Write a sequence for this structure.
């Protein structure tokens, strides 16, 4: 076959030669000096060949005694630094390198390539195919070859084409996220998404692609571009920045992308950030971002741009996480080892997401390598974890297994004897599983499983336990290079069981659970300058509002159970990202959501124009199973745009409306194991909100420094607030203890990020305010007389710093600084005699008119990576750090006791001293 190929190449070259000599008899001698422009003109005029070069046309070719012949160009250029290659009817004149044309016009099979050179792999793809699914196992791995892109015989001639592909790790085959692929000598290019995919506009002709990014060894690829096509690329990992800290929002995309208020995080690049007790925690990292706040220590719940904790939709592999906490909120309920990346949408929420009015946190599980067995493990003072990546069929299927457990009882054992918790216990574990299978050339099936369990007891008579469970399957297929579909379905579950037997006469067991089944069909279509996304989502809710059972033989508790709630939430959506001009991009969409509350159910109707009370009930309605008794439907608008003032400077603006049909009932500002969830119904309306935002984005060329400033205003309606003395647990008619409030929030966020180099990290500052008021005229005694008051999580000033300094390739220092205004609180102002109860009672100030002391915390860590040898079987890492190294007693809350006729106040601090830690991890 090789002989036939060379023979075919010889015949074509002979054809070029014959035509050349048919015009010139005898052959034309070369002058003492000749410019490359004159040389090319002569060759193209006297033959049917087309000449391509990257050498300046005014360059003079050295004197040569050889004649000007296509067949003997090598001899002609032997005294010059240039090389000529003939491929078909094409001649390439390049500086110092030749093109390997030994394959001729025949594209060899994989078997032929393997026989020729087992160490080199070439991809030459002539038509645009799926760049999400249909990947050859061959990758463009050489800097010295020129890869042909598209059909050179295509009748349609273009000046600019679309080049797509996937960038993967040479060693593991894993997709590389956030890798820049830039066109040498121009300002064009792009970067890879979370699946390693890229898509760039590139001029036809010979081009050089420069490839670089965090944890990637800089490299390049040479291409000859004819038409739309694919180039899949393998890159080497740069061990000098192994596991370096980075929050990723790639510079080019940050400037050009129409979305505003979006943060992207890779868990593989947050390993060095100091965390409480040394545990890597994705939610803790999110809390360091601008616009994201938390009420204090020991809380994994977070507030985004003035929203409550239940107004954040947390998705793990398309499933919903209702309680993302472990160990009183010290840890996140899922291990970082089972997560690939995460995206937080603070505004510009895509049309395919809905169900919450504040933010969406989309977490994607990690897929195991399909090429080789790898794993990792870690041990710390509180937790241990292990992670295995198992190829089942090379390049076709794989299995990831991840698990984590704790041994934290010793922490409670160190508490003072009079704390009441010294004999307590606390432990948790979680596990994750991901199965991935390629089916055919255009299909991938992913199956995800996740389970977590917590249990703790402050005393032997007071115990708590709760569970998260998710199962989902996703099918991804490509109908064509421009039309892709994702189908997903699954099941989500959350429950808790609490037992209190401190008083034997009132000992009880309290339980709650929520279950939901979901199905999603999502489509992506690319047509010219439009990237269209549309689909349908549906969720079937099944909520057990609560059950109380007696515990023990001496209890007098009467069994009680709230009725189940069922509902169906469905949404249709369509969105479009339109690149109107190279500088102007607009993202717009519409989501239409519908919520149907269903039976079996019994509910009360109340007197119109009056608040729900037991005295205002006018009718009790019984609804049969499956019958819809209340429907809410809402159109939701999404629009945002970006305009590039310069290549490194852009402005953005956006507006979106949201609806939320499920509510968390809680008497705390954090997430707790006694929180319950309530569906909207005939008496509880859905929450609604809208947000307008704008921003300025700037990057410093060649410094990899990104600066952003964003401002926003948000308004909320039917925010679920509580009446004085509200009973939230086991309340059969919760509508009698809640009221609808309205709220608004505004703020400005500033961020500076340095992505690479010896010093990396980010600074963020947020100024924001959030207010509520009970404006319903039906409320007889509204909070603060119906005036605006700050929420419990209103903290105007918030400053965060995360930094990592590489001392050497193996040693680094990490530092966190966290400062914020103290959160609001309500304090007692005195006592008065209540004639109605004939007793002294406490008089409180208006709600949230005082504040706790400001919060400040500093953390530091020293990181050691003993080996960076890429060929080593094991890579280990040791982190030695201190959480709260200043030992500041930050106030978590205040409480008051009536002691000897006086009301005394006390402050509660979670960590009032430095917390040292040591963690050891290994990767193999």
């Amino acid at each position: 076959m090789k002989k036939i190929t060379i023979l075919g190449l010889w015949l074509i070259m002979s054809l070029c030669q014959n035509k050349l000599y048919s015009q010139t008899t005898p052959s034309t001698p070369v002058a003492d000096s000749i410019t490359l422009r004159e040389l090319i003109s002569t060759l193209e005029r006297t033959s049917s060949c087309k000449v391509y070069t990257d050498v300046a046309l005014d360059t003079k070719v050295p004197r040569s005694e050889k004649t000007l012949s296509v067949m003997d160009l090598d001899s002609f250029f032997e005294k010059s630094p240039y090389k000529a290659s003939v491929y078909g009817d094409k001649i390439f004149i390049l500086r110092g390198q030749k093109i390997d044309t030994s394959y001729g016009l025949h594209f060899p099979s994989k078997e032929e390539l393997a026989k020729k050179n087992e160490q080199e792999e070439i991809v030459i793809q002539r038509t645009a195919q799926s760049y999400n699914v249909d990947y050859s196992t061959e990758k463009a791995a050489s800097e010295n070859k020129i890869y042909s892109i598209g059909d050179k015989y295509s009748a349609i001639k273009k000046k600019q084409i679309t080049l797509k592909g996937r960038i993967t790790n040479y060693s593991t085959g894993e997709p590389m996220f956030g890798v820049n692929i830039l066109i040498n000598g121009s300002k064009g290019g792009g970067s890879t998404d979370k699946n390693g995919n890229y898509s760039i506009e590139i001029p036809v002709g010979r081009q050089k692609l420069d490839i670089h990014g965090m944890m990637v060894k800089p490299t390049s690829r040479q291409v000859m571009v004819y038409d739309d096509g694919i180039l899949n690329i393998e890159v080497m990992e740069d061990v000098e920045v192994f596991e370096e800290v980075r929050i990723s929002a790639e510079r080019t995309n940050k400037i050009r992308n129409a979305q505003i208020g979006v943060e992207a995080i890779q868990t593989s690049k947050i390993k060095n950030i100091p965390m409480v007790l040394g545990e890597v925690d994705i939610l803790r990292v999110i809390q360091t971002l601008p616009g994201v706040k938390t009420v204090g220590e020991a809380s994994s719940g977070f507030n985004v741009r003035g929203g409550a904790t239940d107004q954040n939709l947390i998705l793990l592999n398309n499933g919903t996480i209702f309680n993302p906490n472990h160990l009183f909120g010290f840890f996140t309920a899922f291990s970082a080892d089972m997560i690939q990346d995460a995206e937080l949408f603070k505004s510009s929420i895509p049309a395919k997401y809905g169900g919450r009015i504040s933010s969406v946190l989309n977490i994607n599980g990690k897929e195991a390598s399909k090429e080789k067995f790898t794993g990792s493990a870690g041990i710390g003072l509180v937790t241990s974890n292990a992670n295995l990546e198992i190829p089942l069929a090379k390049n076709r299927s794989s299995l990831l297994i991840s698990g984590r457990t704790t041994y934290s009882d010793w922490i409670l054992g160190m508490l003072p004897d009079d704390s009441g918790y010294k004999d307590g216990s606390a432990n948790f574990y979680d596990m994750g599983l991901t199965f991935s299978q390629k089916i055919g050339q255009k299909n991938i099936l992913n199956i995800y499983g996740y389970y977590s369990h917590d249990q703790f007891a402050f005393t032997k008579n007071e115990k708590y336990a709760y569970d998260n469970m998710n199962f989902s399957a996703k099918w991804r297929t490509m109908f064509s290079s421009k039309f892709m579909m994702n189908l997903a379905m699954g099941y989500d579950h959350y429950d808790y069981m609490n037992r209190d037997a401190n008083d034997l006469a009132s000992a009880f067991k309290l339980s709650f659970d929520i279950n939901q089944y979901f199905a999603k069909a999502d489509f992506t279509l690319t047509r010219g300058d439009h990237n269209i996304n549309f689909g349908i989502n549906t969720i079937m809710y099944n909520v057990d509002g609560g059950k109380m059972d007696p515990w023990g033989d001496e209890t007098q508790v009467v069994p009680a159970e709230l009725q189940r709630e069922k509902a169906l939430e469905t949404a249709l959506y369509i969105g479009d990202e339109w690149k109107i001009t190279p500088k102007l991009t607009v993202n717009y969409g519409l989501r239409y959501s519908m919520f149907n509350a269903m039976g079996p159910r019994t509910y009360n109707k109340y007197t119109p124009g009056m608040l729900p009370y037991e005295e205002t009930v006018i009718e009790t309605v019984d609804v049969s199973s499956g019958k819809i008794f209340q429907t809410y439907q809402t159109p939701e608008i999404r629009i945002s745009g970006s305009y590039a003032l310069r290549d490194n400077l852009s402005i953005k603006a956006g507006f979106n409306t949201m609806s939320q049909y499920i509510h968390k009932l809680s008497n705390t500002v954090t997430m707790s194991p006694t929180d319950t969830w309530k569906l909207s119904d005939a008496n509880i309306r859905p929450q609604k909100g809208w947000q307008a935002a704008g921003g300025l984005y700037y990057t410093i060329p060649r410094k990899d420094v990104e600066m952003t400033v964003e401002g926003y205003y948000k308004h909320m309606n039917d925010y679920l607030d509580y009446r004085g003395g509200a009973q939230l647990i086991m309340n059969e008619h919760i509508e009698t203890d809640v009221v609808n409030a309205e709220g608004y929030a505004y703020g400005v966020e500033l961020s500076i990020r340095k992505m690479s180099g010896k010093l990396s990290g980010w600074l963020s500052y947020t100024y924001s305010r959030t207010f509520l008021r009970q404006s319903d005229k039906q409320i007889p005694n509204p909070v603060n007389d119906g005036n605006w008051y700050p929420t419990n999580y209103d903290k105007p000033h918030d400053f965060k710093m995360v930094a990592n300094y590489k001392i050497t390739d193996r040693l680094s220092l990490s530092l966190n600084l966290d400062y914020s205004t103290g959160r609001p609180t309500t304090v007692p102002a005195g006592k008065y005699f209540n004639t109605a109860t004939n007793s002294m009672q406490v008089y409180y100030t208006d709600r949230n008119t005082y504040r706790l002391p400001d919060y400040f915390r500093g953390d530091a860590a020293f990181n050691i990576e003993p080996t960076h040898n890429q060929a080593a079987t094991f890579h280990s890492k040791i982190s030695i750090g201190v959480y709260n190294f200043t030992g500041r007693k930050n106030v978590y809350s205040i409480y008051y006791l009536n002691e000897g006729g006086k009301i005394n106040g006390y402050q509660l601090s979670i960590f009032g001293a430095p917390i040292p830690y040591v963690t050891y991890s290994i990767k193999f």
Summary: The chain is about 5% helix and 50% strand.
